[in-house]
Amino acid sequence: MHGRLKVRTTEQEQAIKRKEREQKVKAYKAAMGRIMKIRGNVELNDEMLILTREVLQRNPDIYTLWNIRREIFLSFKKEKSDEEMGKLVDNEVKLTENCLMNNQKSYCAWHHRGWVLDLHPEPKWTRELALCTEFLKQDERNFHCWDYLRLAAAKSGFSPLKQFELSDEKIKDNFSNYSAWHYRSKLLPLTHPDPEGNALIEPRQHSYELGQVESAAYTDPNDSSAWFYQRWLLGRDCSVAQRQPPKPLLCWLGPHKAIVSFSKHSRLAPQLFVDGQTVEGEWMMESKYVWVLKHKIGNVDLIKKAEVVTEGGRLELQPSSIGLVAVVAEDSQEHNQVVMDTLKGQLKNCKLLLTLTPDCRWTYLTAVFLMQAIDVRLFHGETMEFLDKLIQLDPLRAGHYDDLRSKYVMEFKLSLMEGSFGVQESVSLSQCHLSSLYHFNQLALVREMCRKLDLSHNCLVTLDSMPGLPALEWLDLSDNELTKEPGRVDKNLRNANLTALKSLSVQDNPCSDLLDIEDLLQTLSFK
Fold it and tell me: Which helix (H) or strand (E) holds 128?
């Protein structure tokens, strides 16, 4: 009053909004009721197009309505001329554009747009590229739009090199654009393949990409987008080793059985030749990395020459105290020299960056990956220190870092043993901070030969990853973190097939009470 504007109270505003919502819900129910009635009568007509259009413009995420419109357009395709069909599709494309203006991340609208354009007699896919560019200007991380861009590029013949240049522009605009980095990773194998076919990406371009990541990291070390892209560049997918066939690491020929262990998943069975003749029998894949052959050779000591042939090479077996064996150390050099020099430079710069931002977990984590890629042995101590630091900086992910530690400790020990780890009768993994058991593909003969296994003073919570150990006589699991969950420990030990076990220690564990493993004790025959 007296010339002052009346301001609505909160209660009044809420009442108005509630009334508006009620009206919208009423209109929506009425429209959906009419649509379902017509749909029940199997009437695919213009009225259905109008009704579904009205609802979709308000809410483009009702997938059922888009499906109804697709049914109508498929019926039109049988009846209409190309000219009529072109006009109908143009109108449908405008509808999807209006819907995307309301919700740029509507999966249904993007999908329907691509689908309906395939019905157009003369689809203008190049226009779609321009549309994607405009939408990406508004939201550069709209992954729905990036997916549609890939479709439009393929349909319009937009070359991978042009798409690669687009990803360049988007990254230069904002290096925090994770979608652009991901898009780039899909294009690199097409635009810059390794001419020798050894790796996924040409070495010099690989080094250039790592340099791009480094520039982004120096700009903002705490931004994760570039770090994730670098992890992909450093991964096995891009390495020389990934393009090479599975390499046999260990071959053993003993009485009645032969075992071949590989560096990675081997889908092809090996071949065993003894004194120039193929050994008969069926090879069985025991795991992704291990093949086993049961044979009928009597005395292996009488064999003059034995060799195993795989897609990754040929190995001649040599006599030993446990049969005929061939052991090969796994090559840790997964990258070529050009990339390796770049990795060393990046590690140096990561350490320099840590002097400027000493609490950046991404820099520590990247340094760990770099050290593992360069030299497992040389940087083992420093890798462990960095993982300790990561646990301090990022305690919510301590389990992940403990898991990495377990993996890297096993790789370090295997590198020291030069592949002979698996042929020892006594294996000690005590005081290694292990939370999981990794790389048993390289310890295939532990199953056959190991009599004594020391896993004491670690951080093992479960034994889920323990392999079958029928020859094991002495097992020390003391001072771990084995779970109190009823029956869990004895179930894991049963799965390990410990038929020869004579001594077992689980003291200083949450499950150290003998009642927790009473059934197991009754089953096993201790001497």
Answer: helix 125-138
Q: Is residue 92 part of a domain?
A: no
Measured between alpha carbons, how far apart are the two ends of the chain, in Å? 100
The answer to whether 108 touches 61, Cβ cutoff 8 Å, is yes
For residue 196, give the 3-state DSSP assignment: coil
What secondary structure letter does DSSP report for 251? E
What CATH number does residue 302 fall under? Answer: 2.60.40
Six-digit token pair at 280? 């008969």
- Residue among 395, 397, 358, 404 nearest 221 (CA): 358
CB 469 within 8 A of CB 277: no
Contacts 24+ apart (CB under 8 A), 147-152: 147/110, 148/110, 148/113, 148/114, 149/183, 150/183, 150/186, 151/114, 152/114, 152/125, 152/128
pTM over 0.85: no
State which amino acid sits at residue 505.
S
- Given the DSSP bridges, would you call strands 452-454 and 426-428 parallel, antiparallel or unpaired? parallel
In tens, the pLDDT along 474-511 reads 889 899 988 766 666 656 666 666 777 888 888 888 87
Number of domain units in the chain: 2
Q: In what order do the strands lie in the sheet with 318-320?
A: 283-285, 290-294, 257-262, 248-254, 323-327, 318-320
* Domain interval for residue 294: 248-327
How far does CA 360 lie from the centroid of its chain?
24
The CA distance from 408 to 339, in Å, is: 22
Residue at which a domain ends, from 305, 327, 349: 327
